[in-house]
Amino acid sequence: MIVGLNHIFEHEGREFHIQVEDLGEEHASFEVRVHSGGGIVWQKKMSYTEILEKGLPRAEQDEAVSSAMEKAMHTVEAAIARGKLP
Q: What percent of the chain has a predicted confidence (pLDDT) above 90?
């Protein structure tokens, strides 16, 4: 289990705190939350069942989940920059 990622992303004078939290193998998902102005402005749960179904060794599985979490964070940053998210 990867605990999570946190990043502060600044765009057009606003500060966004992006959190990505692994919910564990029993849920086979992680949640992405965007905080701004003291509250959550966007969130989404994302499944990683397909990674677990591959039956990878633990280190490779953890790397694949971590990579998916990082990709999600970068995708959210890009969406904010393009005005697609609050």
A: 93
Domain extent, residue 56, equals 4-81
pLDDT for 19-43, tens place per residue?
999 999 999 999 999 999 999 999 9
Number of domains forming the structure of the chain: 1
Within 13 Å of residue 86, how many CA atoms lie on the same side as its CB?
A: 12
Quote the pTM value. 0.92
From edge to edge, which strands make up the β-sheet containing 39-47?
A: 4-11, 14-22, 29-36, 39-47
Q: Which tokens go with 50?
A: 């397909």
Nearest residue to 65 via CA among 33, 30, 27, 14: 30
